[in-house]
Amino acid sequence: MTPTPPPSPSPRPSVDRPWAMLATVCLAQLMIVLDATIVNVALPTIQDDLGFSSSALTWVVNAFLISFGSLLLLAGRLGDLVGRRTIFLSGVVVFTVASLLCALAPSGGALVAARFLQGVGAAAQASVILAIIVTNFRPGPDQARAMSAYVFVSVAGGSLGLLAGGLLTEALSWHWIFLVNAPIGLATVLLGRRFVPRDRGLGLGHHVDWAGAALVTTSLMVGIAAIVQVSTHGWLSTPVLGLAALAAVLMAAFVSLERRIAEPIMPLRILTVHGVVQANAVRSLLVVGMYSTFFLGTLYLERVRGLGPIETGAAFLPWTLTVAVLSRGVTTRLVERFGPYPVLLGGMSSATVGLFLFSTAGTQTAFFPTVFLACFAIGLGIGSAFQPLLTIAMAGVPRQDAGLGSGVTNVSQQVAGALGVAVLSTIADDHTAGLVEAGGALKPSLVAGYQLAFTVAAAVAATGVLLAAVLLRPRPVSRTEPIPTLETA
């Protein structure tokens, strides 16, 4: 008997109020991005209150990162199969409940477990947000404006999280950095039920590739666990090398399985779509610089310059405000006039300059002009480059695979961010430790470590500019082919 093919995905939903829908999914994205940085400011207070050791304290961050990064791909595919609205709302509910459990955690172990659950919810909602946007806004100016809003929330939310974390921790207590998610999560669920359109997925049935899902999720989880162990054990340690080898074996088994079965959880055709691999590879190099700025920049401002949590968050406002201005349609108009290729090249070049400026900051460097211009240049770069990179990455993805494409894009960002922070923080720490052992004073040694790490970050971003120039150059078209635009490039 010929098997019954899975139902076709529903046509583009009719959205009565698309901008209300966009505001809803961006509110969910803001919750995730805020949470990624808001916790960092409160870590010393959490350590004192719950009795964490220095090594165990990292798991307050790592538990979230491991579950979030490893489940993005699976959650994105489940969105294609059971409906993106269902996965989105389920993720918001899980994230909100886990946030309450974090706030009420009586011990360090309970907090780490709740953070892991929080990452599960974040993966579910984040994995389908891009897919919801691109399938409910037609290619053109409206979709470009929607992507600008998403970029603003994703990028600016991190610096807002630093400021909010300082305010809540100093004015109230660390519990409130999690409690604040409860009203936001409840509002998102209510708005999501009203404004996010229902969609019919391909269906689960008996065609779900559960073996592939288990392999890719476990591989990503083990791989990210290896990355986050670097700062504690070092690159060549047995735990790091062992986990990395296991992750590679699991990923090889996953790819082999996906090539052989008829209904894979990740159809490998997604990697052959023009722009998916190229744009995400370039964007990953830019993400390394962005994540390193939040992490190393915060350490520099607090450890070297002696700023408090609130002042540190405020120092990143040039970045936040620049992205906010660009998201108001400036980037969209630039792309419409000049095309995505020159805009993203200019943006990545600006971010590279900003990272280089950070590499010159010393013990007595004033906030203005060096740090101010560094944050401004990075904000200008990311605000200009992220939108065209995201649009190129998702433009050629078939509608039935939009959730998978969204998941691939998010996974590349999380893995690149985790790897960047691990590599750059290790470079900074090792260089600082070597100088101290040689008799150097602590503060100048810290500065030298941060300067070296930012120099490497600038070099990585510059490599991204070169790759973008080669990989994302507009392809020549024949007379019979349509001229590529932002939507089809």
Automatic annotation (TrEMBL):
Q: Highest taxon of the source?
A: Bacteria
* Membrane-crossing residue ranges in chain numbering: 20-43, 55-75, 87-110, 116-137, 149-168, 174-196, 208-228, 234-255, 276-301, 338-359, 371-395, 448-472
A molecular function (GO) held by this record is: transmembrane transporter activity
Q: Where in the cell is it found?
A: Cell membrane
Membrane-topology descriptor: Multi-pass membrane protein
Primary location group: membrane
Record's GO cellular component terms? plasma membrane
InterPro entries xrefs? MFS (IPR011701), MFS_dom (IPR020846), MFS_trans_sf (IPR036259)
Supply the alphabetized keyword list: Cell membrane, Membrane, Transmembrane, Transmembrane helix, Transport
Which Pfam families does this one have? MFS_1
Cross-referenced PROSITE patterns: MFS
Q: Does the keyword Membrane apply?
A: yes
What range(s) does the Major facilitator superfamily (MFS) profile domain occupy?
Answer: 21-476
By what name is this protein known? MFS transporter
- Organism of origin is Paraconexibacter algicola
